[in-house]
Design goal:
Elements (H helix, E strand, L loop, with lengths): L7 E6 L2 H9 L8 E5 L7 E5 L1 H4 L9 H7 L4 E4 L2 E2 L2 E2 L2 H17 L3 E5 L2 E5 L1 H9 L12 E3 L7 H17 L6 H21 L3 E6 L2 H8 L7 E3 L5 H5 L13 H10 L12 H8 L1 H10 L16 E7 L6 E3 H26 L2 E11 L4 E7 L5 H13 L10 E17 L4 H18 L6 E2 L5 H4 L22 H10 L7 H4 L5 H14 L14 E3 L6 E3 L3 H26 L12 H10 L1
Parallel strand pairs: 2-4, 9-11, 10-11
Antiparallel strand pairs: 1-8, 1-10, 2-3, 5-6, 7-8, 12-16, 13-16, 14-15, 14-16, 15-17, 18-19
The chain binds 2'-deoxycytidine-5'-triphosphate.
2'-deoxycytidine-5'-triphosphate binds next to strand 1, helix 1 and strand 3.
Catalytic activity: DNA(n) + a 2'-deoxyribonucleoside 5'-triphosphate = DNA(n+1) + diphosphate
Keywords: Coiled coil, DNA damage, DNA repair, Magnesium, Metal-binding, Nucleotidyltransferase, Nucleus, Transferase, Zinc, Zinc-finger
GO molecular function: damaged DNA binding; DNA-directed DNA polymerase activity; zinc ion binding
Length: about 600
């Protein structure tokens, strides 16, 4: 199939959380409403606002009280809380209702977020062509053309009608496919409404970027077709950062580098010029994009890549004691556990990697991972706590935690597919035995690029809970990756300085134990398998379950070298008393941390 002839749609639910609440309380249908999260300051922060309320100027991000000032009849729904944490299950279940309808009707559906889906309609359109339908304007009651901005219904009908007739008559039928795609989307949107009660909008175009862009042109309850002939004049008015993938730092960089505001202004740059500034791959991607060509496929993905729960602890609500942290590790672990169990039953898969993200008062964000050996609330909570404790600057016996914590997130990912329930139990019990025999107290690996795929979206889709259901970026080259990375720059891994609380004796004994165990661990180079990770230090392929131990081996090794160096400096120093020449790594570390 020629990629330029694809027909891609993006379906986006309108003011989704509000519709979910209104479905439960239909007496609020048609009234100005919003959803706020947490019953805190000034009526809570609004995370969703319906279109009736938007007419009064109410916007997402406003406080409930501010919304009521603008619109006295404004009704606020509150996100459910469990253990003081937002519970989004209601919205996830509603999302599943929508995806059931989409999956029952189309083969190629990609879940882009909790309320967005890409559909590749190319094949469906081809089949429809054989039916030789005679379509009329009545089949397109909510369809708009991206290039036509009129708000007058009669004008919309007149312009669309002319276009419809043109593309049915046109010999080349360049736009006929898009018309048939729009017809299918009119149908499916009606089905979604009938079967779930929810309204949605849609964009129909030749690729995902254009479908996403035009979906927002005529919200709510409408759909928009983006034809190739619309590209130039629409791009001339489209700010660079409105393009999916150019919304964050990457877009800022493009604006700065080329001194442009609108994406169309980049048309004057040759392929060579773009590639010189941005690298071959990204320069080429941008060159094509501004001409309406983008080839990222719709992936048949209906499942989340990771299941996560997180919580912010701003200002005085920060976590400053081990007890508080333990409680929250437990709440978050419970949330993830419950959803993992449900996911395992429904999707016959199991997560292999637990990732902990934490923001400290120092503004440092730490991302660390460890293998999931079994689904267990206690296990998740304990692993999370153990990771976090590494960053505590106080003594191990103290309940006080410094620097205080402002955010904790845990996320389970790296799913193993096609697991049946019986084999899961077997697998876990086997793994647990194996791992417990070789893994020491340290059970942590540095998280490298595990989460980037889903976390790349520039918009924080949820202020308190990271849904991790975001559209994937089309961008693959180094230029963009660098800027996506720069968003991540704060994710500093405080590995060496924080591990200094480990005592010399434990390191040494661990080190020798590991050395003797090294052959047991599966360090086979060049293994290409989903279960293997390449160690960034020695470049060996390491079985994922053994990575924590392997990392600790390097860490212990490095400390040993450092200890040896220090000891030799100490020995050669005439000012040091004889009894200090046998000093432990502990005292070295303590001294170092005081500097
Ligand atoms: N959401 C959230 N926090 C955010 C943004 C969104 O919790 N910062 C939630 C509430 C939204 C849902 O995700 O209802 C979907 O987000 P959208 O960006 O698609 O916005 P809406 O569906 O609310 O409105 P629209 O009709 O503009 O798409």
């Amino acid at each position: 199939m020629n990629i330029d002839h694809r027909v891609i749609a993006l379906i986006d639910m309108d003011c989704f959380y509000v519709q979910v609440e209104q479905r439960l309380q239909p007496e609020f249908l048609g009234k100005p409403c919003g959803v706020s999260q947490y019953y805190t300051w000034k009526g809570g922060g609004l995370i969703a606002v319906n279109y009736e309320a938007r007419d009064f100027g109410v916007k997402r991000g406003m406080r409930g009280e501010q919304a009521k000032e603008l619109c006295p009849d404004f009704h606020i729904f509150h996100v459910q809380e469990v253990n003081g944490k937002a519970n989004l299950n209601r919205y996830r279940d509603a999302s599943a209702d929508v995806f059931r309808v989409l999956n029952a009707n189309f083969k190629l559906v990609e879940k882009a977020s909790i309320d967005e889906a890409y559909i590749d309609l190319t094949e469906d359109v081809q089949k429809l062509k054989d039916k030789k339908l005679q379509l009329t304007i009545n089949d397109f009651s909510t369809t708009h053309l991206a290039g036509c901005t009129t708000k007058i219904e009669d004008e919309r009908i007149e312009i669309l009608n002319k276009w419809l007739n043109d593309c049915q008559l046109d010999d080349e039928k360049r736009n006929y496919d898009l018309l048939l795609g729009a017809y299918l989307i009119e149908q499916i949107r009606k089905k979604i409404k009938d079967q779930t009660g929810f309204f949605c909008s849609a964009g129909i175009a030749r690729n995902k970027i254009l479908a996403k862009l035009c979906c927002g042109f005529n919200k709510p309850k409408k759909q928009t077709i983006f034809t190739q002939s619309d590209i130039d004049h629409i791009f001339d008015k489209t700010p660079v950062q409105k393009i999916q993938g150019l919304g964050g730092k990457a877009g800022e960089r493009v604006v700065e580098l080329f001194q442009v505001e609108y994406i169309g202004q980049l048309r004057k740059y040759s392929l060579d010029m773009l590639q010189t500034s941005m690298g071959e791959k990204d320069g080429c991607w941008l060159f094509n994009l501004i001409r309406g060509i983008e080839t990222t496929p719709v992936n048949n993905r209906n499942l989340y890549k990771s299941i996560s729960a997180s919580k912010n602890f701003p200002g005085k609500t920060c976590l400053d004691t081990i007890d508080k942290i333990r409680t929250w590790c437990h709440h978050l672990a419970e949330d993830v556990f419950n959803r993992l169990e449900k996911d395992r039953a429904e999707n016959k898969r199991r997560a292999k990697l637990l990732t902990v993200i934490c923001t400290l008062a120092t503004n440092e964000t730490i991302t660390r991972s460890c293998p999931i050996n079994e689904y267990s609330i206690d296990r998740f909570a304990n692993d999370t706590l153990r990771i976090l404790k590494q960053y505590n600057k106080n003594s191990l016996t103290s309940n006080i935690f410094t620097p205080v914590i402002h955010h904790i997130g845990i996320s389970a990912g790296k799913f193993l597919d096609n697991i049946n329930t019986k084999s899961i139990a077997d697998l876990f019990s086997k793994q647990t035995t194996k791992i417990e025999t070789i893994i020491s107290t340290e059970n942590i690996i540095n998280c490298q690029e595990e989460e980037e795929e889903e976390d790349d979206n520039e918009e924080d889709n949820n202020t308190e809970e990271n849904i991790l259901e975001k559209p994937t970026l089309p961008i693959q080259g180094d230029f963009f990756r660098k800027f996506q990375k720069s968003d991540e720059q704060t994710k500093i891994q405080l590995k060496s300085e924080n591990k200094t609380t480990t005592s010399s004796s434990s390191i040494t004994s661990f080190f020798s134990r590991y050395t003797s165990n090294e052959n047991i661990l599966n360090c086979s180079p060049n293994k290409i398998d989903d279960h293997y990770i390449t160690c960034s230090k020695c470049h060996k392929s390491i079985l994922i379950w053994n990575m924590p131990e392997h990392e600790d081996f390097h860490y212990a090794h490095e400390l040993q070298i450092e200890e040896n160096k220090t000891n030799s400096i100490i020995k050669s120093s005439k000012t040091i008393k004889r009894k200090n020449t046998n000093q432990t790594l502990d005292s070295f570390i303590n001294k170092k941390s005081k500097i």
